[in-house]
Amino acid sequence: MNSLISRRTFLNGSLTAGLSLPGLLSPTAHGFAPEDNLLVIGPLKGYSPQIGTLVSMLNYNRDTIIRSVKGMTKAQLDFLFDAHANTIGSLLLHLGATDKFYQINTFEGRQEFNEEEKKEWGAAMALGDAGRKEIKGHEVNYYLDKLAAVRDKTLNLLKTKDDEWLLALDPVWSKQQPVNTYWKWFHVCEHESNHRGQIAFLKSRLPGAKPAKD
Q: Which of 74, 189, 82, 204 lies closest to 135 in space, CA to CA?
């Protein structure tokens, strides 16, 4: 019950800070979500309206990932729960690989990594045996720096596009059912949410981890 109350208090306080009465329909006077307030989803300066809203969601998800692994040791990042699991480190690199793939797909129209990209991201994209064998022995900042480098490029490229581009159907992916660019980057968002849950589970199973409260 206490944890539920504290969550409500946090959210209520954050939302009150992000919204001003009585103008609840607009988070700020100029209609843009503050870039430093992750609890306001909406258009951001520098992006077209729909892309800015997408970016606000990408930013929130990425922040939760970063906060969940900050301060983890190399041993914790390399911890393997069982022979079929992925390590937290490999999951982090997998998020970077996914971001990189949708980057080359949506901005360059490519359907697969080139040879240089395969060397850098192949194991992280595939995970499984390749990930368990190759992705280990790194400090947390190694993973966070690689995630940041890819995401920074993605955000800069998104600034060059508009809502028409975001909503456009992909002629290759739409042969069986319509798929647009917005869905692709929404998938990046929900993909990170999915793996954040896996990371939370793996953290709860680390040697010496305290029992979960929720």
A: 74
Q: Which residues pair with 180 in a beta bridge?
A: 169
d(CA 204, CA 87): 13
| Alpha carbons 32 and 155: distance in angstroms, whole number | 17
By residue count, the chain amounts to: 214
What count of Cα atoms within 13 Å lies in the side-chain half-sphere of residue 109? 6
Q: Kindly report, residue by residue over 3-44, the tens digit of the pLDDT.
A: 444 444 444 444 444 443 344 444 443 455 556 689 999 999
DSSP letters for 83-109 = TT---HHHHHHHHHHHHHHHHHHHHH-
Task: State pLDDT tens for residues 56-99.
Answer: 999 999 999 999 999 999 999 999 999 999 999 999 999 999 99
191 alpha carbon, distance to own chain's centre: 7
Amino acid residing at 193: S
Distance CA 116, CA 104 (A): 13
pTM of structure: 0.83
